[in-house]
Amino acid sequence: MSDPAPGASGQVPSSGLLSRQETLKRLRHDLRTPLNQIIGYSEMLIEAVAESGPSVLLDDLQRLLNQGNEILGLLNEALSQRKIETGSVELSPLRHRLASPLSGLLGLRDICEETARNHALAEVLADLAKIGLAAHNLRKLLEKENFTQRYAIDPSPLSTGPAATVAPFAVGSRNPVTDGQAQAITGRILVVDDEPLNREMLMRRLDKIGFSVSGAEHGAAALESLSREPFDLVLLDILMPVMDGFQTLERLKRDPKLRHIPVVMLTALDEVESTVRCIEAGAEDYIPKPFNPVVLQARIGAYMERKRLRDQERAFLAQLQAERAKSERLLLNILPKAIGERLKAGEQTIVDAVPEATVLFADIVGFTRIAATLAPAQTVALLNEIFSDFDQLAEQTGVEKVKTIGDSYMVVCGVPIPLADHAIRCADMALQMLDVIDKFNRRNGLRWTIRIGMHSGPLVAGIIGYKKFAYDLWGDTVNIASRLESHGEPGVPQVSAATAEKLSSHYLLEQRGMVELKNRGEMMAYRLLGKA
Question: Of residues 445 and 351, which shows the higher confidence score?
Answer without folding.
Answer: 445
